[in-house]
Structures are given as structure tokens and as C-alpha cells.
Design a protein that fits this description.
The structure holds three protein chains of three kinds. By secondary structure, chain A is of the alpha+beta class. Chain A is built from two helices and six strands; from the N terminus they run ββαββββα. Classes of the chains: A alpha+beta, B mainly alpha, C alpha+beta. Strand 3 of chain A pairs antiparallel with strand 3 of chain C, so a sheet runs across the interface.
């Protein structure tokens, strides 16, 4: 089972911004616990959706140079609305600045145009092999799987889908 | 006793931290809600940071006199009466109510407080 | 997947602090296939673990009467990733508690190594909009707290054990006799 918190990447401007969406289904098993009488998307999964969208934006902007882009910091992340089953969380992330391996972004999630979550985050790009976390093979494998996942998230029936931005070499 | 400038710097830092706004956005005249985008979630954060920064206690009613704003004695048809305005002035001597007085709609009250009002309030508590 | 992001409480002092543990396994849904080639535990779930540790600490102060939800992540720093085989220790310290909510300072360690630190703000659902919203069934919630060993380790500041609130005991009795 994948832990993707995005269902589709809608638009992507390399080096600038990304728009994506996440639909919540009543059949998602953890909803039975959160909460038993009021099923809503946990705030941290909204955070994860914002992180994943930002991660894809950074990966594509850096041409998948690094095998991993991690969440390092968030600032003033507010949860203002509940995502209920049947709702779609629309995610918008914008790059504010880049410095060496760190990227700063402003991130936001809306439900039918109403603000539901937002704040700032900092992501760090690195190669697993450089940090001694994985050997060259696993490093390359991770990178290639990331590219496959990115393509899956784009609407293949739409000729304008952002997956065309991804380099074809694996 | 901290100087006005020291108070402003600490209040500014608390607001920048809590609201994710930049240094140049936090001017004395900026309203917390309208200009800096503060929402009800943020006020608990702001109060927490100010209490820590200045070692003071901030009772909720001091900044949000809900008892006045929801009382039939002081509010009629969504507007604060003369008596109500006098009560607000008494309870919030640190705030500049002149703009609010021009059109005292209860729903607009949240947008009243400016950064300077907050600094004035903190200064009185620290004294 | 279930939504228990801590395994059990190891320390709990009412109104003061709580410590919980969480072991990360390769066989969890969230770890398997998250990043193929690099099994790692989603950091957002570390935050949830702290939200559960701190949220329970905050709501226990009012004998679990109030509905408390995570309203804001004031600060979050994730120094490195958690991986399968890690045993995480999550410590929440209650920094503030009012009629509107609570503020928690949290640290997550792997042994002596500080993995993450954060400041979380919880809000009590006081709004008119949530008047009829119930989060948990009292019996189910109490059962969860029992399973997390809260009442086994939980103490008041004077050292006396934390008691299960009457309304929860009644709900448990009612549930058992109904079945």
C-alpha cells in the first residue's frame, strides 16, 4: 500500500510552483480511528500532502539530481478546516528561495476555494549514497522509482501533463 | 523596565513567529487581523509567546472583552452603544478606539487591534 | 491502517509531561512502499505521535471532557529520518493550558539522538459549528487509553494514581451490559 497523500499533480512550473489534489474517501481505513464519530483527514496527513507536492516540485526543478528530498522544517503551519470524506483538498506550493541543498516554500491547501491549511516549509535535497545511507545501486533504484511515481501522479490522458518535464533516462 | 523600543522589538518577533509575516510588514499601525492575517487560532499562539517573552499573564478578557461584545446591555442590532463604547474604553485604555467609534459594528471589532495597541497593553502589564 | 501512532505511555504526570514510545517496523503499511529503495517512516507520522502524546496530556487536565484537536504546528524541526528497527521516545511537556486550548513542547529521541523537536498548539472545539460534533465514544476512547497503559503509569503531581473519570467507567459498563 502506498503512502501517497496526493492523487493527481495538475500543474507544475519548474523552479516556481505546483498544484495538486487529494480526494478523501470514507473507505480509508485509519478514518475508523480519526475520529470514530467524526471521520476527517488528520492534520498531519494534510501536512504530508503539502510536503509531497513540494517534494515533487523540488525533484522536477532539480531534474531528479538527488535521490531523496526530505522535510526539515515547518513554520507557523495552521489547520483551519476539516477535510471530510467526499472533499478534495487542493494543494498549492510555491518556491520562495533556494540555498545550497535547502528549498523554502510557501504551501497552502484549500477546500472549494476556502483556506484549510497553510504555512511555510523547508526541504533538503540529498543523495542517499553521499550520506552513506544506501549504496550506489539502491541510490539509483530509489531515484528511478521516484520518477515512475511522479509519472503515475500525472494525468496520462492529458497532453499537457507535467510528467513531460521529467527526464526519460532512468 | 523595558523601553518602548524594546517592547516593540519583542512584540514584533512574537508576531513574526506566530503569523509567519516578514519584518517590514509589522508596523505600529498594522492591524493584527486585517493587515497581518491573524485568525482566532493565532491569538492563543500570540498570547503564549507574549506571556513567555515578557513574563506576564494575559487574561483573555483583557484583549477580547467578549462579555461586553455579547451583552444586550452594550450591544444593539450588532452595534456597540454609547454606553458600550464607554465600557470598552474603560476596559481597553491601551487601544485607540477612534476608528472603531465611527462605525462600531461588533463584527468589525476583531479587526480593531493594531501592533501599537498590543505594545501599549504589554507596557502597562510589565510596569 | 490504524491510527495509533504511539505504542504505549511509559511516564505520565498530570498537567506536566508525558513520555510515550513508538517502534518502527518494516512491515508497516506506511513504511513499505513509501520510498521504494529507502524504507523510511513518514515524518508527518512522527508529528502525529507527538500530537497524540501531547493531546492526551492536554485533554487529561480537564478529565477528558473537552474535544481537543491539533490547530497549529508552531515550530517543527526534523533533524533526520526514522527507519525500521528504531525505537522512538516521544516526550511532551505542557507549556500552557487555557479555556481555549493548550501548547505542547515535544522532543523525539532515538536513544540519545534528538531526531525531532516541535511546538504544537491544540484548540478546544468550542465553536458553534461543532456543537453537535462528537469525536469518540467514551467507552472506546477509554479502552484506547487503557491499551496505551495511561492508567498504569499515570500519576498526579502529588504521586497519586490518575483515576479513570466516572463518565468513562459508566460508558464502559453500559457498553458491556448492552452486548
Amino acid at each position: 500500500m502506498r503512502f501517497t497523500q496526493l492523487d493527481r499533480i495538475l500543474t507544475l512550473k519548474k523552479g516556481k510552483s505546483i498544484e495538486a489534489c487529494r480526494c478523501l474517501a470514507l473507505s480509508e481505513s485509519y478514518l475508523a480511528d480519526h475520529f470514530p464519530r467524526f471521520p476527517v483527514m488528520p492534520g498531519v496527513l494534510m501536512l504530508e500532502a503539502l510536503y509531497q507536492a513540494s517534494m515533487w516540485l523540488v525533484q522536477v526543478s532539480e531534474d531528479f539530481e538527488n535521490s531523496y528530498v526530505a522535510l526539515r522544517e515547518t513554520k507557523s503551519m495552521k489547520f483551519k478546516g476539516f477535510v471530510q470524506p467526499g472533499d478534495t483538498l487542493d494543494v498549492q506550493c510555491k518556491i520562495l528561495s533556494r540555498k545550497e541543498s535547502l528549498t523554502s516554500l510557501r504551501v497552502a491547501g484549500t477546500i472549494n476555494g476556502e483556506s484549510a491549511v497553510g504555512g511555510r516549509m523547508v526541504l533538503e535535497s540529498y543523495n542517499l549514497n553521499d550520506r552513506g545511507i544506501a549504496d550506489v545501486y539502491l541510490d539509483d533504484y530509489t531515484r528511478s522509482e521516484q520518477k515512475k511515481m511522479f509519472r503515475l501522479l500525472c494525468d496520462q490522458m492529458n497532453p499537457e501533463n507535467p510528467s513531460k518535464l521529467v527526464m526519460s533516462t532512468s | 523596565m523595558p523601553s518602548n523600543e524594546e517592547v516593540f522589538e519583542k512584540v514584533k518577533e512574537a508576531l513574526m513567529d506566530a503569523l509567519g509575516v516578514d519584518d517590514d510588514e509589522v508596523t505600529p499601525e498594522a492591524t493584527l487581523v486585517g493587515d497581518l492575517g491573524a485568525e482566532s487560532i493565532d491569538f492563543l499562539d500570540i498570547v503564549f509567546k507574549l506571556e513567555k517573552a515578557f513574563d506576564i499573564t494575559i487574561p483573555r478578557d483583557d484583549l477580547f472583552p467578549d462579555d461586553v461584545l455579547t451583552s444586550a446591555e452594550y450591544v444593539q442590532e450588532g452595534r456597540v452603544t454609547e454606553v458600550g463604547l464607554a465600557k470598552l474604553k474603560e476596559r481597553m485604555p491601551f487601544a485607540d478606539l477612534t476608528k472603531f467609534e465611527e462605525n462600531p459594528l461588533v463584527q468589525d471589532f476583531g479587526n480593531l487591534l493594531t501592533v501599537q495597541d498590543l505594545c501599549n497593553y504589554v507596557s502597562t502589564k510589565v510596569a | 491502517m490504524r491510527w495509533f501512532l504511539i505504542d504505549r505511555f511509559t511516564e505520565f504526570v498530570s498537567g506536566d509531561y508525558a513520555v510515550a514510545v513508538r517502534s518502527i517496523s518494516l512491515s508497516e503499511d506506511a513504511v513499505d512502499d513509501y520510498v521504494p529503495g529507502f524504507p523510511t517512516y513518514p515524518s508527518s507520522l512522527i508529528v502525529e505521535g507527538m500530537a497524540q502524546t501531547g493531546g492526551i496530556l492536554g485533554t487529561q487536565v480537564g478529565d477528558f471532557e473537552h474535544r481537543m484537536v491539533l490547530a497549529k504546528i508552531m515550530k517543527l524541526q526534523l533533524h533526520t529520518e526514522a527507519i525500521p528497527g528504531d525505537l522512538l521516545t516521544l516526550r511532551a511537556d505542557l507549556q500552557a493550558h487555557t479555556a481555549d486550548g493548550a501548547v505542547i513542547r515535544g522532543t523525539v529521541h532515538r536513544g540519545n539522538f534528538l531526531l525531532a523537536e516541535m511546538e504544537l498548539m491544540f484548540a478546544i472545539l468550542n465553536d458553534e459549528r461543532f456543537k453537535n460534533v462528537k469525536l469518540f465514544e467514551p467507552a472506546g476512547f477509554c479502552r484506547m487509553l487503557r491499551v496505551l497503559k495511561l492508567f498504569d503509569v499515570g500519576v498526579n503531581p502529588d504521586g497519586s494514581p490518575i483515576k479513570i473519570p466516572d463518565f468513562m467507567l459508566e460508558a464502559e459498563r453500559a457498553e458491556l451490559s448492552a452486548s
